[in-house]
Amino acid sequence: METEMLQKKQTLSHLPQRAPVNIEFQDLTYTVPQGRKGSKMILRSVSGNFRSGQLTAILGPSGAGKSTLLNILAGYKTIGAAGLVLVNGQPREIKQFRKISRYIMQDNLLQPMLTVQELMMVAADLKLNRELSKDDKLKAVSEILEILRLTPAEHTITNRLSGGEKKRLSVALELINNPPVIFLDEPTTGLDDLASSQCISLLKLLAEGGRTVICSIHSPSARLFSQFDNAYIVAGGQCMFQGYGQEIIPFLSGIGLTCPKHYNPADFIIEVASGEYGNEYLDKMSLVMDNGRNTSFCKPIDEEIQLGNESSDQLGAITYARTSSDNFSPYNYDCSIWYQFKILLRRFWIQTFRDSNHLIFKMVLYAVLGVILGSFYLNMGQDGSKAVFNFGFCYTCVIAFLYLPLMPVLLHFPVEVQMIKREHFNQWYGLTAYYLAMSFTTLPLHTVFTICYISIAYFMTDQPLEIQRMSMFLLICILTTFISESFGLMIASVLNMVNSMFLGPCLSVPLMLLAVYGIGQANDIPILIRIAMYFSYLRYGMEGLIVAIYGNGRAILSCPEEEVICPLRDPKFLISFMGMDNVIFWVNVIALIVCFFVFRLASFYFLRQRLQPNKTFTALNVIGRIVKSHFGITR
Ligand SMILES: Nc1ncnc2c1ncn2[C@@H]1O[C@H](COP(=O)(O)OP(=O)(O)OP(=O)(O)O)[C@@H](O)[C@H]1O
């Protein structure tokens, strides 16, 4: 074990030197609204001091406030929090702090369909200096994978990794540019004893390299606990103890409690903090610790680390950092939006094409739908007596291009938002680059699927075989698809999956109704509905399709001989009958393009507010929480 650790230390010695970052917090409180009961205080004026070069554990009974404290210290939660957080003695500048810290959350949300090495390379491309060669980046990646014992799983797809491997990969991804502060929420949850021990040894190693490593943890074994340099015990939102694990027994003796022999001191202090030995001890503990201000039980700090001594074996300069240019800035987005876009686009395309089963399934689905629809409206396109049915075909196309792109987005994007939140919070990329890369992946795919559907249904239904009409028809269908996807993104950027899946179809109903409302009775439409119709992109789509196939001087249609009266055979009359005489195809196309940009930009704006709410959205968020808790609908 000793040799193994030594080896690991040597391997880690390539990491670049960073200025030590000490975190101190004073009188932190966190309050949440509690409906008519007022508010609930989760953290009660706690203070503490977490130093660089030390591995700190935040411990406590379930519901004590560990994750809350971690979220606030990492800057992940700000609404409802008050108090002072100092970074190296200066008040924390949240934007700057986010650049030097990384937060590894409990649920290992990893980008699917990429191998471990590919995902690490994406992180390296985004986080390391652009001037580094691919080989240098590969070297850096393989060193980190080696340390985290992920080399055997290097070519495994992330979806297939074990829980422990996923956790280690989450750590590895954030280690790429050597952040000086690392927060981890329950890194050992779901791991067996050996994996937990290896995980904590790794964190200890990272701390020894001069980082400030803080993690919340549930009942660690005695062996695991002995690895921590600092234990911060919380109960009922207050600090019960802060200091070196070995100081727990003397501390408890001081307040009149003796830890039984062979008992894990961590278990014992948590039992005491849970109130199992009486509530009077809780008050005593909090009093002696001065709610976290008392640091007399803390382990002495490593002067070498605090001084950032270059001669330290574990802090030698990283080889690839040395090759970089002067403007190497490990804590900022090192690459331009364009460069981020290229990397993210590559990531999206690998993920999309690797999931070939899903792609084929979708393509087949569109084709089958084309065949089904084609057979419902078989050969009706040229038949004047079936013009009303053909109108139904156009409407069905519009509905198909509403739901087909909409539903998968409502289902999938809320989960994606959680991933974006993490990656963006940990400074992987800017939202613009992400959004552009996503759009340049999904929109071409939708175009291909739409062409696949139309090329079957259009021919089966015997629509006019004129290049111009076919292109116009296709253009409207593609634009409708794009808008529907953007409409879905707008909803899924704001809401969770359950609410998105409810709201999306709900909002689709008026859209579908407005698409055909009052057709043939255009003059009788009430003014309010007429205004609403301007906002239904499906209406523009519907009109566009009808004009594409019947407008522009289309010749009189044929009618079967038995149809004596066949008034809709004249396309001009048909268009007039539908109340679409005034429709200009290109105006509708422009309206659809405007709708596309409006929905697309709105979804981008909402997503941005979700990640970094401005003052208005923060205020709306607070009001929303108060209203929800007042009516008892907080989940
Ligand atoms: N938004 C909220 N509204 C109401 N109560 C909340 C909210 N957030 C947290 N709490 C409560 O605050 C307390 C502390 O939560 P937190 O998640 O920090 O606990 P924890 O110590 O991490 O627990 P565990 O170990 O079980 O994960 C819990 O009782 C929780 O129910």
TrEMBL record:
<dbReference type="InterPro" id="IPR017871">
    <property type="entry name" value="ABC_transporter-like_CS"/>
</dbReference>
<dbReference type="InterPro" id="IPR050352">
    <property type="entry name" value="ABCG_transporters"/>
</dbReference>
<feature type="transmembrane region" description="Helical">
    <location>
        <begin position="531"/>
        <end position="551"/>
    </location>
</feature>
<dbReference type="InterPro" id="IPR013525">
    <property type="entry name" value="ABC2_TM"/>
</dbReference>
<protein>
    <recommendedName>
        <fullName>ABC transporter domain-containing protein</fullName>
    </recommendedName>
</protein>
<dbReference type="InterPro" id="IPR003439">
    <property type="entry name" value="ABC_transporter-like_ATP-bd"/>
</dbReference>
<feature type="transmembrane region" description="Helical">
    <location>
        <begin position="433"/>
        <end position="460"/>
    </location>
</feature>
<feature type="transmembrane region" description="Helical">
    <location>
        <begin position="359"/>
        <end position="380"/>
    </location>
</feature>
<feature type="transmembrane region" description="Helical">
    <location>
        <begin position="392"/>
        <end position="413"/>
    </location>
</feature>
<dbReference type="InterPro" id="IPR027417">
    <property type="entry name" value="P-loop_NTPase"/>
</dbReference>
<keyword id="KW-0472">Membrane</keyword>
<feature type="domain" description="ABC transporter">
    <location>
        <begin position="23"/>
        <end position="261"/>
    </location>
</feature>
<keyword id="KW-0812">Transmembrane</keyword>
<keyword id="KW-0547">Nucleotide-binding</keyword>
<feature type="transmembrane region" description="Helical">
    <location>
        <begin position="501"/>
        <end position="519"/>
    </location>
</feature>
<keyword id="KW-1133">Transmembrane helix</keyword>
<keyword id="KW-0813">Transport</keyword>
<dbReference type="Pfam" id="PF01061">
    <property type="entry name" value="ABC2_membrane"/>
</dbReference>
<dbReference type="GO" id="GO:0016887">
    <property type="term" value="F:ATP hydrolysis activity"/>
</dbReference>
<feature type="transmembrane region" description="Helical">
    <location>
        <begin position="583"/>
        <end position="607"/>
    </location>
</feature>
<dbReference type="Pfam" id="PF00005">
    <property type="entry name" value="ABC_tran"/>
</dbReference>
<dbReference type="InterPro" id="IPR003593">
    <property type="entry name" value="AAA+_ATPase"/>
</dbReference>
<comment type="similarity">
    <text>Belongs to the ABC transporter superfamily. ABCG family. Eye pigment precursor importer (TC 3.A.1.204) subfamily.</text>
</comment>
<feature type="transmembrane region" description="Helical">
    <location>
        <begin position="472"/>
        <end position="495"/>
    </location>
</feature>
<dbReference type="GO" id="GO:0140359">
    <property type="term" value="F:ABC-type transporter activity"/>
</dbReference>
<dbReference type="GO" id="GO:0005886">
    <property type="term" value="C:plasma membrane"/>
</dbReference>
<keyword id="KW-0067">ATP-binding</keyword>
<dbReference type="GO" id="GO:0005524">
    <property type="term" value="F:ATP binding"/>
</dbReference>
